[in-house]
Each structure stands twice: as C-alpha cells, then as structure tokens.
Specification:
- The protein folds into 3 domains: 10-92, Double Stranded RNA Binding Domain; 108-228, DNA polymerase, domain 1, CATH 1.10.150.130; 235-425, Intergrase catalytic core (hpI Integrase, Chain A).
- The chain has 428 residues and is α+β, with helices and mostly antiparallel strands.
- It starts with 9 loop residues before the first helix and ends with a strand.
- 43% of the residues lie in helices and 13% in strands.
- The strands form 4 sheets. The chain has a 4-stranded antiparallel beta sheet, with helices on one face. Strands 8-9-10 form a 3-stranded antiparallel beta sheet.
C-alpha cells in the first residue's frame, strides 16, 4: 500500500519555496507545483488501464490542474481534489468532461474571436508590426465577412471553400475566384486559416481534421498553386544599361536620388536603405551592418562598402536629432513611393527599385574572374537559401570576396553605354 503523504498545514504550504511538486497530504495525489514564481495545484491520479503495443498493461495517469495558489486556498484545493477523485472512482474522466464542456461553450466562440486570439498569442514571435497587420488585413478583407461569425466548431470544408472561391475582380474588369485570380494572396490566406483552426483545436474549441489543410484535403478540389499562379517579376534594367542609368541618376541631387544610388551600389532592398541609420555604418572598416530585425531573413547582414558607396555616405549631411541617413522631408522614414516618383521625374517607365537587385545578379553571373561568384553574389543579396550559402555565412560571410565583388560592381556602374535604356523583366 503506498505511503500516505504527511498532511501539511496552510502555514507550512505557504513556506514551500523549492521548485518541483510538493505533496501536501489530506487527499491522495494532491500537490503544489512550484516553478519559479508560479505556484499551482495539481491532482495526479490513475484512471483505468490499457494494453500497449507490447501487450503489457499500462495504467493511465491523469494530471489535472486545480488553479493557482494562493488564489485557490489549501482547503479549496483539497475539496476540489476530493470531488475529482470521486468522479474517477465512478468512471468519469474529469479531463474529458472538461473538454466536452469547453466544446459546448465554444458554440458562442466565433471564428473571428479565435482568429484574433491566435494573432494575440503569436504576434510576439513575429518580426514586426507589419506582419501582424498583414494577417489582420487578409482575414478582415476575405475571411471575416464570410465566416467570421461562424461557430469555430462549425467551420468545415464548405466554409473554407466559400472563402477561397469567393468572386473577386480581375485586372481586365472581369471576375474570377480568389484562388484563381489572386493565388499568392489566397495561398497565404489558406495557410492562415489552417493555423487558426489548429490553434482552436489545441485550445479545445474544436475537434476533428483541419478543413483548411492542403495535403490530403484541399489539393483534391483546388488547382495546385503552381498551375494558376502568375508571378509578376520586378522590372529590371539589363546590366549593360546600368552605366547610362547611373549617369542620369547622378545628375539629380535629391535625397531619394542619393538613396537609390546607394541601394544600387550595395544591392540592398528598398526598406533596408530607407531605414538605414548612421549607427549601422562603420566608416573606418567601410561596412554597413543591418540588424536581424530589419532583414527579411531575420539574420543580421554586413554589407562591404565600395569606394563610391563610401564616398556617397561621406558627402551626406547629418541632421541633428535624426539618425536616418536618407530621411523623408519631414524627418521620418522615406516612403517607397519616393523612388517611384523619382523614376517618373527621370522619365524611366516600368522599373522598380527591387529590380536593380536582379540587374546586379545578372551582372554577377556574367563575371568570370571572381572566385565563388555565385555564393558571393547570393551573400551580397542576403539570399540564405541553400546549404552551401549557409556554410559560407557560418564561416565569415566571405567579406573579402564580397568587397572585391562590390568594388567591381561599382566600377561597372560607372561604365557608360550609348544604347537606349530598354526595360525587361527578370526574376528577382
């Protein structure tokens, strides 16, 4: 017969400090669990048994939370534990009973309520507020109007398809389903619906399979994304035309022109340049280090500065009280639309800031004299997407080779051609 735990007084329980489970006696299996500053009651009990795969009988053990201490007193914990143990003796599983009660109450828990709760739980791990806004925007636009008020436990395949097959307008003025017309958006939305429904199941608000899952489910009723998705690549300048473009760009003295020139020389993304601050620049070592929080891959990125990029920074004025290198006229971060306006003033149509990264990549592929040219250019673009590149990052980011590459790129950007600029699409 198991040894009974000593029955502790309320004062003795209040003096327990060490982490772990402490038997308090009075009811078999009643413990105070301490983990740092957290204190909570738990009842451990056996209920029935089952035969495992080896043919052995295994006792099923329950661990039932009874609430925090001292909000729940010792006397209350013992009373609740006695009630639960009686249920177990009568063959009632308290955990299953609690789950059924939660599912019953979830009839008033809507999809929208669960979606907002999911976002609140997860937003701390997302990189920035923009990610939270993207989630909220797609759900508010496409899901909440159709299924937002559905009980979460009533969401089925029909409800998911109602969202993904809703009619939307197309560029030519006709209509089509969201899945067919805006497949990239619809695919992201499907993944978000799946995550919310998984969260609801784990949280005890629904049961069964996930109706938003792709494998073994929606893939049998919707065309594969690769079959309907039309990828619009960023318009990019042929690299043979970059010298002519740079000469035209350097005739302009505005902040947006300087920012674009710096973006081209560093092969950086628009947001990385527009948000660049002076404390990220090491003029002594001629490097620009962007923090992980500002990088798409959430990994800090060091950019070696070529002589022209270095000279550009040296000539940029510093504004007292403003750490931005390329601030907007009112002092904040420059809008991405500033570059579009610049292109309009330069009378260069159908071109994007991001497209210059493609121009750089195409030029780098054409280089024959740079060792590890593909790995080096991928690192320059902060594309950490294969084992070989990850290994390079793990070593030293190949800064000497990248410095050579960026220096050669800057020299090439000063090579003027006489051909008329023509825009064509490249993969970024």
């Amino acid at each position: 017969m198991p040894k009974k735990a000593k029955e502790l007084s309320a004062l003795a329980v209040s003096r327990l400090k060490e982490n772990g489970k402490h038997a308090v006696g009075g009811v078999d299996g009643l413990y105070l669990r301490i983990a740092g500053n957290s204190r909570a009651w738990v009842l451990c009990a056996a209920m029935g048994s089952r035969i495992n795969q080896s043919g052995k009988e295994v006792v099923r053990r329950l661990s039932i939370g009874l609430g925090p201490f001292p909000e729940i007193s010792l006397a209350e914990a013992r009373e609740n534990a006695r009630t639960l143990r009686k249920k177990i003796r009568d063959g009632i599983d308290p955990l299953q009973e609690k789950r059924k009660a939660k599912l019953t109450s979830s009839k008033s828990k809507t999809f929208e309520q669960c979606a907002l709760a999911f976002i609140e739980d997860k937003k701390i791990e997302w990189r920035n507020d923009k990610h939270v806004k993207q989630w909220s925007s797609t759900l508010t636009t496409y899901a909440f109007p159709l299924i937002g008020q559905f009980p979460i436990n009533a969401i089925d395949n029909d409800a998911i398809l109602l969202v993904l097959r809703q009619e939307v307008s197309t560029k030519d003025g006709s209509t089509s389903t969201l899945w067919n017309a805006r497949n990239e958006t619809a695919s992201r939305l499907r993944g978000r619906l799946e995550s919310i429904l998984d969260w609801a199941k784990v949280s005890g608000y629904r049961e069964g399979e996930n109706p938003a899952a792709w494998q073994g489910n929606l893939k049998h009723v919707l065309p594969a994304p690769g079959k309907v998705q039309k990828v619009e690549h960023h318009a990019a300048l042929p690299f043979s035309e970059i010298g002519t473009f740079m000469e035209k760009l350097r005739q302009r003295s505005g902040i947006s022109a300087k920012a674009l020139e710096f973006a081209i020389l560093t092969a950086a993304r628009s947001g990385e340049v527009r948000g660049a601050t002076w404390d990220e620049i090491d003029l002594h070592n001629k490097t620009w280090t962007i923090s992980a929080e500002r990088m798409k891959a959430s990994k800090s990125h060091t950019v070696p500065l070529s002589d022209p990029a270095y000279a550009l920074l040296k000539n940029m004025p510093r504004i007292v009280g403003n750490s931005l290198i390329f601030p907007a006229p009112k002092g904040g971060i420059m809008s991405d639309q500033a570059f579009k306006a610049l292109f309009d003033r330069m009378q260069v149509a159908n071109i994007t800031t991001h497209g210059f990264r493609s121009t750089f990549k195409d030029w780098a592929r054409s280089c024959k004299g740079t060792e590890f040219s593909d790995e080096v250019s991928e690192l320059a673009l902060a594309h950490v997407n294969n084992d070989q590149t990850r290994a390079a990052y793990a070593r030293d980011q190949l800064l000497p080779q990248r410095m050579q590459l960026m220096q050669e790129w800057a020299i090439y950007c000063n090579t003027k051609t006489t051909r008329i600029i023509q825009i064509k699409a490249h993969t970024a």
